[in-house]
Design brief:
This protein has helices at 12-20, 29-32, 34-52, 56-85, 95-131, 139-147, 151-181, and strands at residues 6-7, 10-11. By secondary structure, the chain is an all-alpha fold. It has a two-stranded antiparallel sheet with strand order 1-2.
């Protein structure tokens, strides 16, 4: 971890996060964790609606917006989860599962970051192509042709990739749920010592 400015033994992030946390919440991770799940699931559903309903571009652009917001919140959730792991009581048997949860979360965040950037690139190329009014062949035309050579195929690939990403989310969430519901991580107080 990098160097952080501390206030009376607490990091600036701790101070900022704890300022808005309700008393019952041990940290920000449980408050954030469900937002990326819901937003990314809805984004994949919007992709499906883009195939089935009219006004396909509205659904696809909305789906991309949900991917952007969901991935950004996933990044915040990942950071707060890493911070939370250092502050909550974790029973000895759960430490291996914490590492598995981190590993899955890292892969899931990386996957959705790449997928979201790909979606933004294809949407940006589509928008640039539709706004291009020059008749000459430019570098912009070459770039947009690469991304829009088969729009239906690209839509299908993004949908399938989104479903695959939801599988990663499910695996990550399963391990997080096990930590909370089987081991009491973040919920169970540390044992009393005498």
């Amino acid at each position: 971890m990098g160097t952080r400015i501390g206030l009376a033994g607490r990091t600036m992030i701790d101070v900022a996060i704890n300022w808005f946390l309700p008393e019952w919440a041990p940290n920000a991770h449980p408050l954030l964790v469900h937002f990326p799940i819901a937003l990314l699931t809805t984004g994949v559903f919007f992709d499906l609606l883009g195939f089935a309903l009219s006004q396909q571009m509205v659904w696809r652009h909305s789906g991309t917006a949900l991917y952007v917001i969901g991935t950004a919140l996933m990044g915040a959730t990942y950071i707060t989860g890493r911070e939370a792991a250092a502050t909550v009581f974790t029973p000895g048997l759960a430490h291996g599962l914490v590492n598995e949860h981190w590993t899955w979360a890292t892969f899931t965040l990386g996957y959705f970051t790449i997928l979201t950037l790909g979606r933004l690139a294809t949407h940006g190329a589509t928008i640039m192509r539709s706004r291009s009014t020059t008749a000459s062949h430019t570098t912009l035309d070459t770039i947009t042709n690469v991304f829009s050579w088969r729009p239906a195929l690209i839509q299908i690939l993004f949908f399938v990739a989104g479903v695959g990403g939801l599988w990663l989310v499910m695996e990550t969430a399963d391990r997080g749920g096990q930590l909370v519901y089987e081991y009491g991580v973040g919920v169970m107080p540390p044992p009393l010592t005498f």
